[in-house]
């Protein structure tokens, strides 16, 4: 982390940390929602996220689906 701060500078580093915190909050919300679903639905969601991550060559790190995206996926089944 100290290297990131030195490389990015204080402003960019602060933005990066805020972005990571927001992403983690979104992931937590998604996981809480997934707990209420069947194992089959959870598996479908994880498959979609995995495909998206593969398409981004695992670089983007945005492994999150919104509540609406999850509902759409479940309703399409």
Provide an overview of this structure:
The protein is an all-alpha fold and 77 residues long. Helix content is 78%, strand content 0%. It contains four helices and no strands. The chain has helices at 2-8, 10-35, 39-55, 67-76. It is elongated and about 50 Å long. The mean pLDDT is 88.
Task: Give structural attributes.
mainly alpha, 4 helices, 0% strand, 77 residues, single chain, elongated
Task: Give a quick precis of the structure.
The chain is mostly helical and 77 residues long.
What percent of residues adopt helix (DSSP H or I)? over 70%
Q: Classify the secondary structure makeup into a structural class.
A: mainly alpha
Annotation, overall tally of beta strands: 0
- The gyration radius over C-alpha positions equals 16 Å
The sequence of SSEs as H and E is HHHH
Number of H/I helices: 4
Quick check: average pLDDT?
88
Ranges with pLDDT <50 over ≥5 residues? Answer: none
Distance between the termini: 42 Å
How much β-strand is present in the residues? under 5%
Topology record:
Layout: H1 2-8, H2 10-35, H3 39-55, H4 67-76
Helix pairs in contact: 1-2
């Amino acid at each position: 982390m100290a290297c990131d701060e030195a490389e990015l500078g204080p402003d960019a580093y602060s933005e990066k940390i805020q972005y990571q915190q927001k992403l983690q909050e979104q992931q937590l919300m998604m996981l809480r929602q997934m707990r209420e679903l069947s194992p089959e639905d959870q598996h479908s969601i994880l498959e979609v996220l995995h495909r998206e991550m593969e398409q981004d060559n695992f670089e983007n790190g945005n492994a999150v689906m919104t509540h609406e995206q999850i509902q759409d996926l479940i309703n399409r089944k």
